[in-house]
Amino acid sequence: MYLNFMQKQANRLGLLCLFMLLFAFLSSQHAYAQKPPKGATSEQVFEILASEIALQRGEAGLAYQTYLSLARQTGEADLAQRAMEIAIAANAPDLALAAAQTWDELSKPSQTRPKEVLVTLLMLNQRWSESVKPAVALLNQQPLSEREKTLKQWQGLIGRAMDESAAMLAYYKIISALVPLPSSPDVLYSYALAAEKAGQFEVMEKTLRIILKKDPNNINSLNALGYSLADRNIKLTEAYDLILKAHKLSPDDAFILDSLGWVNFRLDKTSLALTQLQDAFRMKPEADIAAHLGEVLWVLGRPLEAEAAWRQGELIDANNATLKETIRRLKPDWIMSLDKLASQWDGRFAVKMNDRPTNNTQGGSGSFTLSKTGFSDTLEIRSPMGGAIAKIVINPGEAILERDGKKVMAIDADTLIQNTLGLPLPARGLSNWLNGQVRPGSTARLVRDERGQVKNITQDGWDLAYKWSDAQKIERLNMTRNTNTGTIDVRLIFDQVND
Fold first, then answer.
1. 318 and 438 Cβ atoms separated by less than 8 Å
2. Whole-structure pTM value
3. What is the pLDDT of residue 18?
4. In this structure, what CATH number is given to the domain that contains residue 378?
5. Are residues 97 and 230 in the same domain?
6. Listed residue (194, 188, 180) closest to 218, CA to CA
7. H or E stretch including 362?
8. Residue 22: what pLDDT?
9. Do residues 50 and 97 share a domain?
10. Domain edge (last residue) among 146, 177, 209
11. Which of 4, 38, 176, 336 has its CA 20 to 30 A from that of 196?
12. Please, where are the H alpha helices in 215-302?
């Protein structure tokens, strides 16, 4: 197995792009108030000055809306840029994105800075598919040396994506559109991994061979190519040679030792594979290695030990793709089948919040209906007396809250509910959790009972404790979250669950 290179880059770069933008933008002298745009009316000049005063008083929302409205009225790109700066300072990435889109639309095509900011904000807002077109346009305007710097910065954002598959697919599409391809080994390696995520194995193999032709001892590429061949059960002799070379160059790397164990398993050297995988897991307990170790134990006729290995893997990361695929294939009774998945839940909730600094306790209660259709969830929240409070529609990358005939949109459903209703209810991924599944896109920890039924899930800062009926329908879910300011307890009791 090979370690996700994007995550390595994320650890190095983090949100470097955003910090650079914040430094560049927020250290400006706000020349808009000092020198209004040419042709501005006296009324518009007054609005600009009033917005800066409002900003000084903490009324960032008013200043943002005024600047953005003026930008659209006057066609002045600088005013949209100022609105974006205000949104960034206010930690409102969705509003910053809206302003950045206007800034880019109003700017001259030759200007690269608006596109650079727009792409960064699209990625920060998890709108990966939308980032591809402006990203390619930006890179095509940059010299080759600048391109590679930009691509390396984006690696940091992609490594922190909520949906790694969507991010990697976007990265693959971006680089595939470039002529010529980048020459940096780091960028090419990331491109190879992105190609694999996109199912383009020929592109992955070709790209890794380009790296190895220039640098035959590139450990990451040796291991990645060897593991990919072994995992697809092809060219096993070459796969073994590649991984063995990587292992000799880096004998203490647990991920490479895992690859060596996996290729030996493919070569029917099962006992040797078991020893190597056990050593790799001791060196670095990871979900991928647990998946491989469990499969070898399963084939050796040691199912209890195999299940124990998979349970350990789920404690580390129940969302790991290799582990999930292995369990689904070899231990399907642990996975709730599609015909048993519920699509609608009716129940009651009670929320208790303990504020640690003041030791005050607050709470609320009511009823809810959650329904799932395709990739869309609809959550209806009602008061204890049954009156409608709000309706939240959650789509991939977008949440819309309807209340009193008005709609509010955001990229994150949890933040939307908290800011609008004052209730810390976890809506993002709730339909997955109610089916005893982890939410795709973020690391999760899962605990099963002796029958393989889900007992606990830990994800997104929430600890979930389940109670199921004999028919495997959820009866109760207790959700707890510890924050810097206190604890949040949410109890869900289900009146009806529909398949």
1. yes
2. 0.81
3. 47
4. 2.50.20.10
5. no
6. 188
7. strand 360-373
8. 42
9. yes
10. 209
11. 336
12. 219-231, 236-249, 254-266, 270-283, 287-299
Task: Tell me which of 186, 209, 232 is where a domain ends.
Answer: 209
Distance CA 439, CA 415 (A): 17
Cα–Cα distance for residue pair 404/303, rounded to 1 Å: 56
328 and 347 in a single domain? The answer is: no
Distances (CA, A) of 164 to 159, 169, 188: 7, 8, 18
Residue with tokens 């990871």: 286
CATH number at residue 114: 1.25.40
**What does the block give as tokens for 207?**
């790209």
pLDDT (0 to 100) of residue 12: 44
Question: Do both 63 and 193 map to the same domain?
Answer: yes
The pLDDT value given to residue 40: 63
Residues 159 and 232 in one domain: no
Same domain, 439 and 387: yes
**What pLDDT does residue 298 have?**
98
DSSP structure class, residue 22: H
Encoded tokens for 114:
């608006």
Task: Specify the pLDDT at position 52.
Answer: 73
DSSP string, 29-68: --HHHHSPPTT--HHHHHHHHHHHHHHHTT-HHHHHHHHH
Strand order, beta sheet including 406-410 = 406-410, 398-403, 388-395, 376-382, 360-373, 344-355, 486-498, 474-482, 462-468, 454-459, 444-448
Burial group, residue 320, by CB count within 10 angstroms (0-12, 13-18, 19+) = buried
Whole domain around residue 410: which residue ranges? 338-498
- Please give the pLDDT value at position 338: 65
How far does the chain reach from its first CA to its final CA, in angstroms?
Answer: 38
Which pLDDT does position 29 carry in this prediction? 38
Backbone phi, psi, residue 363, to 5°: -170, -175
Contacts of residues 133-141 at CB distance under 8 Å and 24 or more positions apart, as own/partner, are 134/104, 135/170, 135/174, 136/174, 136/177, 136/178, 138/112, 139/174, 139/178, 140/178, 141/110, 141/112, 141/115
Predicted local distance difference test score (pLDDT) of residue 472:
83
Which of the residues in the chain have pLDDT under 50?
A: 4-6, 8-34
Residue labelled with tokens 């709000």: 390
Helix (H, G, I), strand (E, B) or coil at 448: strand
What's the domain count of the chain?
Answer: 3
351 and 229, same structural domain? Answer: no
Q: Tell me the pairing of strands 444-448 and 398-403.
A: unpaired
Encoded tokens for 95: 């509003």
